[in-house]
Amino acid sequence: MSYYLHPSVSITEITDYKTQISHVGHEITVEEQNKNIQEFICQINKSTFPACLNDHENSDTMLQIFNFFLDHNFITTESINDIDALSSDLKILNNLSFPDFESKSPKLFSKVDCSAVNIFGNGELFDRVKVELEKLEIQVHINPKEDQMGKRIIVCCSDQPNIKLFNEINVMGLEKEVPILFANLDGKKSCVGPFVMPGESSCFTCYTHRLAPNLGFVEEALALQKNKGNIITSKTPQVLYALETSFHVISQIVKFNNQSFHLCLINEVLELDLLDYELDIRPVVRIPHCKSCYSKENLKPVNAVRALI
Ligand SMILES: [Zn+2]
């Protein structure tokens, strides 16, 4: 079996007798082992590792360090060649966290083609998300026709609330049974989510339905949702806000692809204030008879006992 030093591991010689080893899950200081740890790291690259540890003059210590590195996921049995640091950090988190209901795979995960996404919309946020996905070597299909969509995640972006477009994409994604992620800018604020898993989570219609009555200004919310009476739109430059919001969109795709479903905005929306960095994650409870996502198999709302938006 081959072993590899995890790419997220960082090792620092703090003093002559203290070494700190860390990654996203642990920060551990080891005393009086600086030389042994350095020698151990040299051994990892050998083709005969870990058998070669038995031939070392300090073999007992070397084997103890080996077990210590294994226990803490500092070394892995599979080579990790992710191009982005987020993916390799998520792999550690997934190893460390205990599986619970929220981290179970959505049933449709095995059918999704994670190498590509379909992206719908236009504008600054749309452009930025497209560029960043391409940097991660995820193929981007722009506003594809329905018969060319395949089984890819749908990402829907807009520089302002665009309920009409989002509703259309919501219905399309539900029909195709692919995950749909929504993101829009709204002046100095932005909203990412919900990340819809057809048949298993609340959808965008559930979100808008829950949103209006829970706002203090229902008439205003409904007018915005329907793009009604819009005379002048904000001239706030969107580039910077798009840059900041795109990170959260990309991070959702990477988390889904890494099966970190407990970190995905499923049944949730993330609201960001891009000027004062206020951040809020709100639950999106499913509507039992939602006109978009209702089905007989899916009669009961998941996570029904949660605070409403
Ligand atoms: Zn719904």
The chain-level mean pLDDT equals: 85
Ligand species? zinc ion
Number of DSSP strands?
12
The CATH C-level class name of the largest domain:
Alpha Beta
Number of helices: 8
State the CATH topology of the largest domain.
Rossmann fold
Report strand order across the widest sheet. Answer: 7-6-8-9-10-11-12
CATH architecture of the largest domain: 3-Layer(aba) Sandwich
Biggest sheet overview: 7 strands, mixed
Following the backbone from N to C, one meets helices and strands in this order, namely EEEEHHEHEHEEHEEHHHEE
Multimerization status: single chain
Q: Which percent bin holds the helix content?
A: 25-40%
Which residues sit in consecutive blocks of at least 5 with pLDDT less than 50? 304-309
CA-CA gap between termini: 50 Å
Architecture overview:
The protein is an alpha/beta fold. It folds into two domains: 4-84; 101-298, NAD(P)-binding Rossmann-like Domain (Rossmann fold). It is built from eight helices and twelve strands. It has helices spanning 34-44, 59-71, 85-96, 124-135, 163-176, 204-211, 218-225, 239-257, and strands spanning 4-5, 10-15, 18-22, 27-31, 75-76, 116-121, 139-142, 153-158, 180-186, 189-196, 268-273, 279-283. The strands form three sheets. It has a seven-stranded mixed beta sheet, with helices on both faces. Strands 2-3-4 form a three-stranded antiparallel beta sheet, with no helix packed on it. Strand 8, helix 5 and strand 9 form a beta-alpha-beta unit. The radius of gyration is 24 Å and the shape is elongated. The termini are far apart. Mean pLDDT is 85; it is low at 304-309.
